[in-house]
Amino acid sequence: MGRQPGHNEGVTAPRAWLIWTIGIFAYLVAVSQRTSFGVVGLEATERFHAGASAISFFTVLQLLVYAGLQIPVGLLVDRFGSRIMIAGGAVLMGLGQLQLAFADTIPGGVAGRILVGAGDAMTFISVIRLIPLWFAPARVPLVTQLTGMSGQLGQLFSVLPFAFVLHSFGWTPGFLMLAGMAGLAVVLVLVLLKDHPPGAPAPQARQGLKATGASLARAWRQPGTRLGMWSHFTIQFSGTVFAMTWGYPFLISGQGLDAAAVAGLMTLYVAAAMAVGPFIGQFVSRHPLRRSTMVLLIAGGTAAAWAAVLLTPGRSPLWLLACLVVVLAIGGPGSMIGFDFARTFNPAHRIGTATGIVNVGGFIAALVAIFLIGLVLDVLLASGYSDGVLYGLEPFRIALSVQFLLLGFGAAMTLVCRRKVRRQMAAQGVVVAPLLRAMAQQRRANLTQRRQRDRAVKD
Among 152, 92, 68, which residue's Cα sits nearest to residue 367? Predict the structure, then answer.
């Protein structure tokens, strides 16, 4: 890949990293707003006098808004730039949390989550778009992984400080604190964030609706974009389901853990995602033709981890739950591979649009899974299977099993799109199998040379 248009090789590293840090803070705030409802499931059930499917509807509608706005936001960020979109997203999230802070009815709470979902939708794509404009192409995969990894701190914020304020001071102070964080993000973005480096080529003229639609169509027709979308669909949703809605009640009511143990597992989730991110980024940089294989391996590991927990007689030991949490955490940075597909198979002026298409995948899968799990829990309760316990272990075993359907479907579609991508590459003169063998031979040769040098040094 050549140098991305818009990237200025003369930009000093400190300036690029400052811009990235401001974007990361805004993304961290967005993640904390997104995942905040994941730790209030039991409190929300009491506050809104709602059942499992109604509580899941809060998150489903939020994710539906988020997913539905991904493609429009991708088009808008290509047109207006990241600064306006990130600041606007933070404003919407702040208003949503203010609404939720004082809501005591389901419609009022849903209205707040809709605003949060809309603001959240405007953030990640806008931050991702900054990376190829401010960093050299060789650094983009690693910085992309660092972006996803750093954003996980937002989830840690919702698990620890937000949960502490919520349980110590009540519902309203907790959500007011989140609104204040969104306000701080607005100020920092408007004051410090820049869309592109000094001296970079001027942005393209704004497109009309017809040209915008054509750009969207070209991004969708690109098999690499669809491969990225299905990769994101397959390995991102299970961790989102766990972190945003059903992980907390499953661990508390289903597995019988106390709040401290659950907080420890959620912290492990964030720490594992942050730890594995750089390794996946390096893998993608060094083995670009193995990206889809990594996606399929993570999908298989996710299915195996859930099977082990759900099939264990009685409650699972803590070490097994910790293993599940680590595997789910890997899906977060692993799903970032989807955005790397979008970047490498689309020109720079279409990155936002392609990224929006990719980002739809995982969140559509997540909202389907969250809704189905809540629906199954309510059906089991109404049928008498749950013995009057909505969040019992046995009902959770059945309800959480719907994830296997989505994992299998996503893996199948990933394989279909991978074949199309490889056919396209072959038509362009890139023959994948011989290239993989040549790369493997080169790696073995490099390893042999290093060993010879090491022996020479010792001698």
Answer: 68
Neighbours of 383 (CB within 10 A): 9
- Tell me the H-state helices in 312-350: 318-335, 337-344
The whole domain housing 226 covers: 13-196+213-428
Identify whether the C-beta of residue 182 lies closer than 8 Å to the C-beta of residue 31: no
CA-closest candidate to residue 93, choices 157, 27, 43: 27
CA dist 396 and 275 (Å) reads 29
Residue 456 forms part of a structural domain: no
pLDDT tens track for 265-285: 988 998 898 888 888 878 887
Domain assignment present for 268: yes
The CATH number given to whatever domain includes residue 28 is 1.20.1250.20
Which structure tokens are listed for 426?
Answer: 């072959």
Residues 61, 110 contacting (CB under 8 angstroms): yes
Q: Half-sphere exposure (CA, 13 Å, Cβ side) for 206? A: 7
**Cβ atoms < 10 Å from Cβ of 413:** 18
- Judged by phi (left if over 0) then psi (alpha if -120 to 50, else beta), residue 207 lies in beta
Q: Helices 13-35 & 82-102, crossing angle to 10 degrees?
A: 30
Q: Which two tokens stand for residue 156?
A: 């840690």
3-state class of 429 per DSSP?
A: coil
Say what the pLDDT of residue 274 is: 83
Cα separation, 129 vs 143, whole angstroms: 12
d(CA 125, CA 335): 14
Asked if 403 and 369 touch (Cβ cutoff 8 Å), the reply is yes
∠ CA 323-378-301 to the nearest 5 degrees?
A: 20
End-to-end CA distance of the chain: 41
> Residue 361 domain-assigned?
yes
165-191-140-128 Cα dihedral, nearest 10 degrees: 60
Question: Is 277 a member of any domain?
Answer: yes
283 CB burial (10 A radius; 0-12, 13-18, 19+): middle
Whole-angstrom distance, CA of residue 15 vs CA of residue 186? 20
**Predicted structure pTM score:** 0.73
Considering Cα of 308, then 34, then 157, then 333, what sign does the dihedral take?
positive
Helix axes 318-335, 223-241, angle to 10 degrees: 150
Contact (CB, 8 A) for 38 and 178 = no
Q: Which two tokens stand for residue 216?
A: 């969207």
Mean pLDDT of all residues in 139-144: 81
Structural domains counted in the chain: 1
| Cβ contacts of 291 within 8 Å, gap of 6 or more | 231, 284, 337, 340, 341
In total, the chain counts a number of residues equal to 459
Residue 205 confidence (pLDDT) above 50: no
